[in-house]
Every structure is written in structure tokens, then in C-alpha cells.
Amino acid sequence: MAGTKEIKTHIESVRETRKITNAMYLIASTKLRKARQELDNTRPYFNALQSEIKRIFRTAGDVDSHYFSGDEEPGREGTWGCLVITADKGLAGAYNQNAIREAMRLREQQPDMKLFVVGEYGRRFFAQRNIPIEHSFLYTAQNPTMARAREISALLLDGYDRGEMQKIFIVYTDMAGAMSFQARSTRLLPFRRTHFYEPEREARPLPEAPVREPFEFLPDASTVLNTMMPSYVSGFIYSALIDSFCCEQEARMTAMDSANQNAESLLGELSLQFNRVRQAAITQEITEVSAGARAQRS
What we know:
This protein is α/β, with parallel strands linked by helices and 298 residues long. The chain has 6 helices and 7 strands. The chain has helices spanning 4-59, 95-109, 120-128, 146-161, 193-197, 221-297; strands at 68-69, 80-85, 113-118, 135-137, 167-175, 181-189, 191-192.
């Protein structure tokens, strides 16, 4: 059985670890609030952009663009691109593992896939398994910005426009609720036309005004639509970066909260063990003193 000194050292170690986990919990909660605020500040612009794309399809139904396709896609079984968003470090529960698992599932469906990775965790995972990475964005995943989203979007759109990739997917973690999230893979390009034909996909505070006068597109509707798409793709990627970052902080808060609770439970057990060992030592000392006194009287 461990002595009082070893138990006391263990208690101090658990207390120091609890201080670290509690600090990480507070930091994650602060980052989460900030990221949600940034997403709320930029979301209205991209919602309006999506509404304008819907309006183009409603007013010019015959518009053609290589950024869009129907649900049936013959001839698009070539090279795929996949943007995988992970964190820079662990200590976030199963956040990274779920995103990696979803990316590997997608790679099994199409082995001819080019990987674009955000986050140090994903880079190390694929490098350790000798899985080639087409491009690794070396900046941190801890600070998603619109400028970085545009950089990612420009690289992906360049490969798509040149025909190097027939489809582009994005693997990120989406917040399904206030305290729940799940890793998902979404086809980024080409967009499905039905996504913009169904207005119920987007919760709007007010219904859209009906189109009373025909719109004029200069030089044509396809050019206008193709000009809008890079901004929309950038907004989609930025939203995925922010969602993943929020989920990472949420997962880290949950993990650190569990660590704090485990530390409290462990401290209770160690304190009880320490008291028992100290009580046994005191009892043994009293017994030895009493035995020595009896021996001296004898």
C-alpha cells in the first residue's frame, strides 16, 4: 500500500491537472462564443446571396452552368476532391476521429481522390499512413477567417474549372443542436439544382417577394450566375470552418468538463485513502508506544 507521502504527491498532481483542464474549459467556452458571433455577423450576406441564386433559377429556368447539376450525374466518375477539416490538436473527445472516419469512408467509395487538409491532426493522420495529400493548408485551424476561406475556395475552384476534379466534397463537423454535433460529408461542387429550387431548406423570417417584372441579365444569366458562385463557395467553406471550430470547442468543453468531474471523484478517493493510511499509521504508533510501556513496566 502506498504511504502518505506518495498519496499526497498524487493528490497534488491531480489538483494541478484539474487547474489545467478547468483553464482549457474556460478558454474553449470563450472561443466558442466568439466564433458563433462571427458566424452570425457574416451569415446574412450569404443567405441573401443564396436567395439571389434561387431567384435566377426561378426567372431564368434554362440557365446553364458547370457549377450545377441535377441529381442524376452521368459521366462524373472521374477524380474527386475532398476538403477535410480537423483540429490542430486532440483533447476534444471523438471530434477528430469522427471527421477522419468520414473522410476514409468517402475515400473507400472513390480511391481516385485528392485530399485537401485543414488542421494538424488530419495532416499527421494521413502522413503516418502514407496517404498522399494534394495540398495541406499550413495555417492553424484555430482561427478561421474569410480570407483563408477565399484562399481554399480559389484553389478548389481552379482545379474544378480546369477539369482536374469532377466532384468536390467537404468533410466537416456540423452542429446538429446546442449540445450535439456530427461529422458529415457534403458535395460542394457541382451543386444540386434542387438545393436552390426548394425554399423550405432555408428558414427566412419573411417570405420572398414574388417576381412581378422580368429581370435583365447582362451579358447573360449564365455569366451572372458563374460570377456569383466563387463568393458563394467561399461563404460555404467559411461556414464549414466556423461550424467545425465551434464543434471542436464544444467537444473540448465536454471533454474538459468530464476530466474535471473525474478529477473531483479521484480526489475524493485519494483523500479517503490518505485518511485511512494516516489513521493506520497513528494507530500503529500508539500500539508501539503502548507495547513499549508495558515491556518497560514488566
